[in-house]
Specification:
Order of helices and strands: EHEEH
Number of helices: 2
Distance between the termini: 39 Å
Helix content: 40-55%
Oligomer: single chain
Structural class: alpha/beta
Number of strands: 3
Mean pLDDT: 80
Radius of gyration: 16 Å
Length: 89
Amino acid sequence: MLVFLSNDYPEKDWPAFEFEIGKRAANKRTQEYLLPVIVDDVALVGLKDTVAHLDLRTTTAEQIAELLAEKVEAAQVMASEKRAPAPAE
């Protein structure tokens, strides 16, 4: 789940709701799930230190898109490996 966070997000209903849902879901999963993108110098309240994030002030939109494409591809590979039948002996 990709969420864009700025100093305005706590004041807006939808971004605050989205971030809260993302945090809850991330706590329930063993795989990477939540990827916050920081837009400005917002404080990440309630986010574990182990959750990686991207900073739009130091990362280009193209770099973020490339990283997301890599993550989607890796997830597709993992999903196809789970669906593949076990090799016959």
